[in-house]
Amino acid sequence: MTAQSGVLVRTQGVTCAAGFRAAGIAAGIKANGKPDLALVLNEGPDHAAAGVFTTNKVKAAPVLWSQQVLSSGALRAVVLNSGGANACTGAPGFQDTHRTAEHLADVLSDWGSETGAGEIAVCSTGLIGDRLPMDALLAGVTEIVHELAGGISGGTDAAYAIMTTDTVPKQAALHHPDGWNVGGMAKGAGMLAPSLATMLCVVTTDVVATSEQLDRALRHATSRSFDRLDVDGATSTNDTVLLLASGASGVAATQEDLDAAVLAVCDDLADQLMADAEGVTKRVTVTVRGARSEDDAVVAARVIARDSLVKTALFGSDPNWGRVLAAVGTAPVDMEPDRISVSFQGRPVCVDGMGAPGAREVDLSATDIAVDVHLGVGDAAAAIRTTDLSHGYVEENSAYSS
Amino acid sequence: MTAQSGVLVRTQGVTCAAGFRAAGIAAGIKANGKPDLALVLNEGPDHAAAGVFTTNKVKAAPVLWSQQVLSSGALRAVVLNSGGANACTGAPGFQDTHRTAEHLADVLSDWGSETGAGEIAVCSTGLIGDRLPMDALLAGVTEIVHELAGGISGGTDAAYAIMTTDTVPKQAALHHPDGWNVGGMAKGAGMLAPSLATMLCVVTTDVVATSEQLDRALRHATSRSFDRLDVDGATSTNDTVLLLASGASGVAATQEDLDAAVLAVCDDLADQLMADAEGVTKRVTVTVRGARSEDDAVVAARVIARDSLVKTALFGSDPNWGRVLAAVGTAPVDMEPDRISVSFQGRPVCVDGMGAPGAREVDLSATDIAVDVHLGVGDAAAAIRTTDLSHGYVEENSAYSS
């Protein structure tokens, strides 16, 4: 999907880039005692940053705060908590976010790293609607600063601490041959959908770049990675993707190289999010070709990827291609019904709008499923990652808050 | 929902109106030997008719045929089969539909009722993508004409013969005090969504009315009934709703009375479709108020009604109101996030965008669930009927074609 230079690994995350330290601890926000507080610190020399946030009109307090902070184009730290989304908590919830940033700024300043609250982004994830346990959270902020570490451990601890229904942490790191690095961590297993695949993600780099360059690279990457992951069509109140640059490598990359590297990391993280989605039994890639434009291809692929009848058929390993036709026919894009073709796992099941011989016998028992649809009206193509709709999804989501 | 005059009952359907006879038989289209062929005959004196069809770009052969036939504004008969949708079957599938109408016209003409193929609508429902077993179907057409009956039995037999995954037949009949009647039958349990709730429905009346009057009454009714039922967001290739008038009562109704009566029958049938939807364990009405326009209210209610996380929470009787906020926040309509209120079963769970005391304790164990959302920006309101997302839905839809 990408043409980046360099080696991508999953054993490191945000601390693979020079100038960054991170930590993750159990602060007592989650009732089960698991890690729930993470910190990513940019020790510079640069502090350029960019962010992309949920398009949901109902935005969580930390999203409102971080959007405001990011207007300066600089960040010294990101503090993230799981165990509560701090969404739909009104003005008191916003004050909680503000207090968190203020407190972290004080602690970092006491600790020798002069920082203002306006240089700190806050991210929260978990159940919507409840206030955060601020005593535990603030005590955790005091403590976590002492746990900051570089290398593999700091980033990995942070990646664990942001998990909710995730079963594994998600990290990716790219080492560019020119001597700079991009690392990232992400969480997200439900409410994964368009306009950011509902998640928290922090990406770091030690390249020398302005906030404008970072912003361009981040939007380029998210529109082609997280925005094309759609597990359940639900867009969260808390989606946040941040990109921080320390400049510690002393190397300035071209915009093109930066775009490619950030996309490579985001794309790999998106792949990890799909593989760990709630209740997933099939990892599905829906590719639409023959569309009038790439946007049309994205829209059509998303409509198929969201269709409950397509998703339940895939759960049942049932090559019910008629449901793909019925789904794509509702997409608001140009298509030629009599020229639509569909294949499953590379085997044609529908040609020119009609069933192909043997279509009902295609084997869909594999875990990775390729659905390819040709609209017959153009040359543009795009792919959406999704999952099946399983008993596990229903089970997990029918008892989340209780 | 309606202000119609007259008594509505569910024990009669299309043959409650004078001038209509109907039948339903097992023609061997379904492998399991259940009834699969239905016929509704309008014996006049009038033959005015109107139809509303799926908006899916991928339209089944019978939809293409019936749309063409309806351009004349007249129908003498409707022949319907379950056991196969005759969708995505290309030109050969269209020829099958044409042959069906031609054959029925011949049989009816031989039988003394001079009819042309162009006066016959055809409806099909079942699996997409397979050709119909035409030998069985045409033999069935020859036979079914001899089974035509008025009264309760003919309509009920027809209502049984159009069932697919439906567990009960759906009929409604309204007897107007002015001496005319409207009756209807419908089927549909999956692929129930907007722009007609994916279904076949035939409504009959013995009122004296032009095809223009019928068309207006039918569009008025479907936009407020079937279009506001959304079980799984999937729009079928075969949706068809037909309204036939015999004029046999000799009474001409006002447009207003006709609108109200047709809406009452369609609304009741929509209610029956919701109650029998695939895997349903909860019948849910999502009402949005305080919207800028009725269209906005419909859009917002539909977004909530389609949200997998809301639907799985309802399946688990979990008052997870945050998911309702997260869902409505993605609706492309005006809203004031800090003024949104939500109640479950009439109990406030969210007021002005924040949780209400006791919100997590609201009892959602009932079968009928009311979700009310106030957007805080206007006075318009609308409701969408939907269901929960259950294990039963996943089970039924993961093994439909196999």
Descriptive overview:
The structure is a homodimer. In chain A, strand 5, helix 2 (about 90-110) and strand 6 form a beta-alpha-beta unit. The longest helix of chain A is centred in the first third of the chain and has 21 residues, at about 90-110. Chain A is α+β, with helices and mostly antiparallel strands and about 400 residues long. Chain A is globular and about 70 Å long. Chain A is built from ten helices and 16 strands. In chain A, strands 1-7-8-9-10-4 form a six-stranded mixed β-sheet, with helices on both faces. Chains A and B meet through helix 8, helix 9, strand 14 and helix 10 of A and helix 8, helix 9, strand 14 and helix 10 of B.
Write the layout of secondary structure elements.
Two copies of one chain form a homodimer.
Chain A: E1 7-9, E2 20-25, E3 37-42, E4 48-53, H1 61-70, E5 77-81, H2 90-110, E6 120-124, H3 134-144, H4 151-161, E7 170-176, E8 180-187, E9 200-205, H5 211-224, E10 240-245, H6 255-275, E11 283-291, H7 294-306, H8 308-315, H9 321-328, E12 341-344, E13 347-351, E14 354-355, E15 368-374, E16 380-387, H10 391-397
Parallel strand pairs in A: 5-6, 9-10, 11-15
Antiparallel strand pairs in A: 1-7, 2-3, 3-5, 4-10, 7-8, 8-9, 11-16, 12-13, 12-15, 13-14
Site (Involved in the stabilization of negative charge on the oxyanion by the formation of the oxyanion hole) (chains A, B): 125-126
Pfam family, one (chains A, B): ArgJ
Keywords (chains A, B): Acyltransferase, Amino-acid biosynthesis, Arginine biosynthesis, Autocatalytic cleavage, Cytoplasm, Multifunctional enzyme, Transferase
